[in-house]
Amino acid sequence: MDKKQLQQSIDKMKKELAEMEAKLKQPERKYPVPVVDEVGYIITGEGGVTKCDYLPLSNEYFEGGNWYSTREEAQKAMEKRKAYWRVVRALRDHEGDWVANWSNPDRVKWSINYNHVADCFAPFSGWGHQVADSNLYSTREACQWVIANMKDNLRLIYDVK
């Protein structure tokens, strides 16, 4: 091996070492990407749970949040989704097609919060606070209606007993 080849080999090893060091600095994932042929569970479009062997083409399930290690995890997630959509449908029936207008900061938006200390749901209003994974309501009364009529669904959504 001549000097040029030796230097190329050293440069290649330095690059590989830098990549390995970068991987070491990354936080360990709590839920690692499944490996090929690992068995997991997904929620079907029909709202059922089915077993699925992980293949590279299955990565869309994992990246989309629809890959579960156990049937129980998938079942719980499916029940939560169903409860969420029951609330959304009931809300549409109650409020129509109201949509939060974020371009108007003066327009109050309502959501439902859960107080773990008091073990209760309560309407929460905010002008400029956008909450992820939260239904938004046009009025306090709409929130109160959902709390009064859909408490079991809310408990599933918020994962509280």
Uncertain ranges: none
Structural class: alpha+beta
Shape: elongated
SSE run: HEEHHEEHH
Task: Write down the Rg.
Answer: 24 Å
Largest sheet: 2 strands, antiparallel
Let me know the average pLDDT: 81
* Percent of residues in β-strands: 5-15%
Cα end-to-end separation: 69 Å
Number of helices: 5
Helix content: 40-55%
Instruction: Tally the beta strands.
Output: 4
Brief write-up:
This protein has 161 residues and is an alpha+beta fold.
Task: Explain what the structure shows.
The chain has 161 residues and is an alpha+beta fold. The chain has a domain of 91 residues. The protein is 44% helix and 15% strand. The chain has five helices and four strands; from the N terminus they run H-E-E-H-H-E-E-H-H. The chain has a two-stranded antiparallel ribbon. It has a two-stranded antiparallel sheet with strand order 3-4. Strand 3 and strand 4 form a beta hairpin. Helix 3 crosses helix 5. The protein starts with a helix and ends with a helix. The model has no long low-confidence stretch (mean pLDDT 81).
